[in-house]
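The freezer alarm interrupted the setup, so I double-checked each line after restarting. Inputs confirmed:
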Amino acid sequence: MIRDAVTFEVFRNAVTGLADEMAITVLRTAHSQLVATSMDFSAALCDREGRIIAQANTLPVHLGSIPGAMDAIFDEFEGRIQPGDIYLLNDPSLGGMHLPDIFVIAPVFEGPTLLGFSVTVVNHTDVGGWAAGSMAVQSTSIFAEGIQIPPLRLLEAGVLNETFLQLVLRNVREPDLLRGDLESQLAACHTGAEGLRALAAKHGVEHYESLIDELLDYSETLFRAALAEATAGTYEFTDHIDDDGLGSGPIPIRVQVTLSGSGIELDFTGSAPQVASALNATESFTRSACYAALQGVIPSDIPANSGFYRPFSFVIPDASILNGRRPSARGARGLVGFRIVDAVLGALAPVFPGRVPAAGDGGPNGIAIGIVRDDGGSVVLWDPLSGAWGARPDRDGVDGISSLGANLTNTPIEELEQSGYIRIDGYGYVPDTGGAGRWRGGMSTFRDMTMLAPEASVQIRSDRRMFLPYGLAGGAPGSPSLNMLDPNGPDERMLSSKPQFVMTAGTSHRHVTAGGGGHGDPFDRDPDRVLEDVLDGKVTHAGAARDYGVLIDPDGTIDSSGTSRLRADRLEGSRA
Amino acid sequence: MPGSHDLRSSGWRVGADIGGTFTDVIALGPAGEVVPMKVPSTPPDYGAGVVSATMSVLAAASVEPRDVVAMLHGTTVATNAILSKNGALTAVVTTRGFRDVLEIGRLRRPSLYDLSWSRPEPLARRRHRYELDQRITSGGLLEPAAEENEVRALASRLRADGIEAVAVCLLNSYVRPDEERRVADLLRAELPGVYVTASVDVSPQLQEYERTSTAAVNSYVGPAVHGYLTRLEAGLRNEGVVAPLLVMQSSGGLMDAGSVAERPVQIIESGPAAGVTAVQKLAEMIGLSTVVAFDMGGTTAKASLIEDGEPFVSADYEVGGGMNIARGLASGAGYPVRAPSIDIAEVGSGGGSIIAVDPAGALHVGPSSAGSRPGPACYGHGGELPTLTDANVTLGYLSQTSLAGGTVTIHPDLAAKALAPVADQLGADVQETARGAYQVAVSNMTTAVKAVTSERGRDPRDATMVAFGGAGPLYAASLARELGITTVIVPVYPGLFSSLGLLVADTEHHELTSYRPEHAELRVLAGEFDRLAAKVVDELGGDAEIDRLVDMRYRGQRFELRVRVPDGELTEELLAETRARFHAEHQRTYGRVGADDLVELVNLRVRGWIPTAVAVADVLDLPADPGRAAATRSCRFDELVATPVIGRADLGSDPVEGPLVIEDMDATTLVPPGARVFRDRFNNIVITWSAP
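Predicted 3D structure, all chains:
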């Protein structure tokens, strides 16, 4: 346990700050919009055994997968790890998650002593394969998805393997971006390495290592204490992904969460087998999503490190949607992670009734637009879209926010338009879409675009069309997501939730994210809150009456007697 | 009015800096006379306190109000309007389809796993965000232009809704500022008395959300700032002070009150900027090129970096979002503002920070604070939780009887009593615990300094630290030691240093425009710089000094670095030299450079300033010494040491060894064992460490 509270706190401050410093380095130097603007990347520090010491304020579902990547590095390089090495990997069956997520891992040495590792994960804009962005749902084999990198040395003892780098760059659509983002990862690893060396020098290697043990023990202690307060038992929940994008579905994700004293087991037996398309997750990613879900329901100031992971045990079926077998495709596996979070939170709702929210939009959804320029070069535009959080037990959901599993920004409209390839025709909320409840779920958002390029291939990953974001405690589910061509035009046509299609100049598309679920009986919602939503156009007059039993007069005031009558009628109806 | 705020005439100048608890007023006479005063702030009408304190200072100095040549002001009025949510009833007017841009923002939250988080309420509610049937394309075409009739009809609705302020932000207006200004002008004509901001007038840059937010902040605080400054000016005139009123901007320069009322978004960080400006002028006088300014008060500690005599100025920040240490990562907590602002990193460590132990046995200091009420336990105002000030009293670093020239009585027994439960939890004695809290606070504050140095590729060891604020001098030497900084300077009036910054600041004005494709032609680019410079001259007068600056980045990067364009006629060679400066700055900051053909221009800026006539040396006379009871105190470092307690005047120009406690009226400086200290010819306390 903590031997010297002062030294411990000083050390904890330093490593947490160092991980954030790595992330800031990536952010400020990255070249792609997906990294620099949307912030689809993560950074962490590991000790010499590959345990996470500290992680940056970055992407939850990335961070928990780092131990899996470290295992792959040890499997390959144990005994051969030397100063100046830089390891790369993205292969899902060898420590990776999906091909665009490239891990860059740098061992940190002081003299001959291995102190630990700097780790960064960046979702690169494109790593080749048949579809722009390399994340198409429709891929049926990893061999179609892009370049696979097993654990390899990009630098060996400080010497760059130029052949390796050139081979990678030749296989991707935007080599400048990949190279720039890779360099930002190297810069961040350098930052982390300098910092770890300074820490080891300050405390002495032996003390530095015991401080790491104390830090991991500290998180474990706090987490076990939080778990011990929960009611022991087994809690089950099944959520679904609508379909695999190739016509098969639904895809159940079933979890049994067993809380016993101070440990937690997550058993996914009964979940769907792996699918033909690219939704298949890795075991490391599944674990990562579970860690993120638990961090959402326990006190949020427990440092996220490998000590936090210790109380967990898992049953994750092989060759399942949660743990695909090579050569299954993985590009769109993010969706499974978000649904795992929903399923685990659903299971924990009865255990932590004051903390667990109703389900959110189930995203982010991703729109990838690929354009081939006249000169043969390629352009990939990413527009990750997020909508809503579900209602909380004591407050409304959030309108316009990224889900717990992610923390991605949208892409500035004026930046997208500056490319000259698309025009955005509207971006905003859709009324009556937040799940009704005593506390309302967050609202759907729409994004309308018109293609200006002569021709573009468009690929969308979305869901929550059939299986809606669940409500809790009597709250209604959120509204479905939507993809539509030529909205309000003569050729208006619905598309599937995971379409792959070609747009030509002048055609338009609308995407709508799902709304968040509601919490509690909507007829218990304070009519004043309903009125405020109506005045803000978030709920329509008709919606107020239908979903909440609140009548709003045309002059914008509550019809109290009409409201009482409407609410009483429903009570009558439910008794009858 | 050009020249109206010329600060080069001699006479009395008065600086007034409003904080949440105290208003500091400091007057400076033509012969270097200094009259400081600290009075309680007078919310909600902070101006009344400024007027009465100003009159008291003038009376104390026997100066006639009409002999004041400049009133210089640092104010939190804009920030307060946002924090207390009592700004104007604000509307947003935008392009059809985009009224939710302001509320949706960038979707990010500051804390990863906190599911109880809610976004700050938008400054204009959805019902007050209106759309016009108009569109500016990214190429600058109007498809269609806004119809006058529609704008007039909208004005009627705004009037009917009782709207007090409007932010007009049309999509892509940065490429067609004229169209947005036309809409804003129509609304102004239709809505007399309503405060109207065109987004391009406060942030003529790409990125619709950040521009809309900046315009909304400007309109939201506009009426409050305008009203406040008008009342303050009237109040001063009533008392016979006819000098021009100038306000400190977030960027560190002064701006006349009339311009501030149009662009109040530029004074959000007025107070903190004044302190850094004081450090900048001090550094210039002493001849220091690289300085870490360290400011620690009751609730937070702030750090900023001055390099080659200039503070780092960042292009954007968030207001109302609390501490800004993990800049870029923890976004979403507040309201983005695109206005030049001195880059200041902040952590929640101050004299009032609360000391606690968590269930797993870790010791925490802050960020929660006992505030000014009840304040530290040792003040005897009913505070029971232990704070850093209680720790410092227990350690013997602070006076055992009174602080602030006798105005605050200290009860050491209450400090020890408050610390006892924490000590029990740690299984340590009270002094050990207090010493631990001191060290943890030092470690917290290193994060702030690193954020402005090592995160930018700067080595803190190359800097001198200048410490100020009520608590800064107590921690500075230890913080410097931790960072490898070998010299620390504690100037005179460390507790009033921010208001001193007002007295010595330059008058300053910024203009900028986004880079557009037509700027690729050299002649057009030169013309654009000339146009911006003309606007600056319009504001400051013909003898303003002018800098041309550009924000540059490599293609795809989100963050720009700012570099100065060399003086002289704009030529291809000059641009190449500018790009070379960018590469060098990138190498320095991030340790690598990109290809020359990847360099993009993002913004063109012109900064103009009129240097002040006042040198900081004028204010550095030795202040009156309140005197002390004890000649030594038992101070706890690694062990108890009998430590001499002296006044600044007692310190000589020959270095002496620590430990030493040096008491000023407004702050206490701690010189730990192993450090050396002397008083320089400007009366600064100079603490040195031998290199580690």
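Quick read of the result. The domain at 507-610 of chain B is CATH 3.30.1490 (Dna Ligase; domain 1).
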